[in-house]
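Example (one chain per record):
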Amino acid sequence: MSDPSAGRSSVRLRILRLPHGAGLPLPTYHSEHASGLDLLAALSESEPLDLGPRARSLLPTGFALELPRGYEAQIRPRSGLALKAGVTVLNSPGTVDADYRGEVMVLLVNLGAEPFVVRRGDRIAQLVIARVEHVEIEAVDALQATARGQGGFGSTG
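Predicted structure:
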């Protein structure tokens, strides 16, 4: 039998739980091959958020993180929320840079026709950790030609 972790690398992610995140689980993967860690709403138990149609709100997660140099965290929508309720991450994917030390926040928008209620502990988004490469910018007078050329949106079929 093969090792289920074969082919996967591990990166240490340091997380600081904030006071209003006390009692909530830290982000977790919910299946063996999941790429995203589930993010939970760190709202007050007594104050759920009523997100009306076309409304947006910045939701706390109750933690800050310390990414290793050369990595970013991407905040992405949960497909189930988008399909069932029309709720998604507005600035998708949201980017958390390696030098950011503030609370991880999720900008949700309700694109559905009905109000959507977010309660403490609800899964609201997912966090994907990705490697980042920096490039050296070189100004040139011309670019190499390709068969595609300047064909943009929809040009390849």
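Caption: The CA atoms of residues 70 and 152 lie 30 Å apart.
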